[in-house]
Write a structure and sequence with these properties.
It is a single chain. The chain is α/β, with parallel strands linked by helices. The chain folds into 2 domains: 161 residues, Rossmann fold (3-Layer(aba) Sandwich); 119 residues, N-(1-d-carboxylethyl)-l-norvaline Dehydrogenase, domain 2. Helices cover 53% and strands 13% of the residues. A 6-stranded parallel beta sheet has the order 3-2-1-4-5-6, sandwiched between helices. Strands 7-8-9 form a 3-stranded mixed beta sheet. The N and C termini lie far apart (55 Å). Bound molecules: NADP nicotinamide-adenine-dinucleotide phosphate. The site of NADP nicotinamide-adenine-dinucleotide phosphate has 28 residues, from α1, α4 and α12.
Amino acid sequence: MTKVALLGTGTMGAAMARRMRAHGLAVRAWNRSRAKAEPLAADGIEVVETPRVAAEGADVLITMLTDGTAVEAAMLGPEGGLAGATPGCTWLQTSTVGVAACRRLAELAPGSHLGFVDAPVSGSKEQAERGELMVLAAGAPELEARVKPVLEAIARRTVWLGEVGAGTRAKLAMNAWVTGLVAVLAETITLSEGLDLDPRLFLDLLRGGPSDSPYAQLKGKVMIEGQAAPSFALRLAHKDLRLILEAGREAGASLPVLAAIEEKFDRAERQGRGDEDLASVIAADRGR
Ligand SMILES: NC(=O)c1ccc[n+]([C@@H]2O[C@H](COP(=O)([O-])OP(=O)(O)OC[C@H]3O[C@@H](n4cnc5c(N)ncnc54)[C@H](OP(=O)(O)O)[C@@H]3O)[C@@H](O)[C@H]2O)c1
């Protein structure tokens, strides 16, 4: 039975843990705030005190944490994941950390004799719960077979993209698209309201046409009706926009629209909406 250590049981990590357990994998989970991980015990997941204990004896160690700083906090130090991991274990790094942090994290792995797979995921809470994520994987080809049981549990599709770093770059491109779509959708709804049009009419006119998308319908509905639990927190989308702009600067890519969108997310976060779904970016327009 494949033994998995999972560091981070937030929105995505908790859903992935349940999928892996349902697929028969042995899962040990750690979360900084232990109380958030406790409910997983009812699903047969072992909740442990430290990343080190989670990592001991694991075939695959997964990090699913906020950003590069959080991953370093969980992996380094005497109680960190690297201290517990057995040589030969494969580190599947699924958090969205950006280009610079991905490079830093990949450099940590060889010192502990771990294989490193750069494996950010596309898809949100709902896809994670159904085991239908898309994994943008990059790493040494011999690691593919080792992480296969995990990928079969969490993903509908895994794309192997080459050397470490390629997964992270693809993820940033995907999230440039997603955050751009959400920002323009928010302004279209704000415009509709300003023009005394029912924003539902706009979504209806869009439906089924060549420029429609399931995501626009989903998030448009949330913008109009609100949503209790966030699928993708606004603060995380804002973090990704900062990582996108940083990567763009490094690559010499001109991104003025994404820079303006980052400011919009920044305004919404400063309005106290960071923990809400990214659809709440519409508040940055409405609140003006
Ligand atoms: N949600 C989505 O739709 C989605 C989709 C694709 C990719 N992602 C990416 O996946 C990652 C996780 O997203 P999520 O939605 O699951 O986020 P989340 O619900 O906010 O969970 C974040 C996790 O990181 C932990 N954490 C934060 N700072 C830490 C630190 N300094 N040390 C140790 N642990 C720390 C949190 O622990 P506590 O519980 O103690 O705070 C929690 O376990 C992010 O990189 C995100 O961008 C998210």
